[in-house]
Amino acid sequence: MEHVDFTEPFADSLRVELLDAAVRAGVSCYKGGVYGTVQGPRLETAAEIGRLERDGADFVGMTAMPEAAIAREAGVDYACIAMIVNHAAGHGDVPIHDAVDSYTRSARNATMSTLEAFFAAL
Length: 122
Known about the structure:
By secondary structure, the chain is mainly alpha-helical. The chain has one domain (12-120): Nucleoside phosphorylase domain (Rossmann fold, 3-Layer(aba) Sandwich). Helices cover 46% and strands 5% of the residues. The chain has 4 helices and 2 strands. Strands 1-2 form a two-stranded parallel sheet. Strand 1 (35-37), helix 2 and strand 2 (59-61) form a beta-alpha-beta unit. The longest helix has 25 residues, at 96-120. The protein is globular, with a radius of gyration of 15 Å. The termini are far apart. The relative contact order is 0.20. The model has no long low-confidence stretch (mean pLDDT 89).
């Protein structure tokens, strides 16, 4: 197997198309940043969040890896729609599970709106 360049984990053209779809759908989103990954399926610990913050992560999740690396190795364009549904362990005003439950419904709606706009443009 050959090692691939993973400087930019997401396919830029696909990423831009998804960002444009979010704009058309009226969904606010972040257009850059450092994504820190924890192994799921589980929520992160406060210690992991602290370490990832010190490492420069802007967002933390479990949904972008190892998929991005596998897609790059297979030569498949890949981008990730990751919805932020909690304030990270140790950072919210409510227990983390309460935050996840309360934000998931609106995040799901925003994701579907973005995907509908994306596919309508094809």
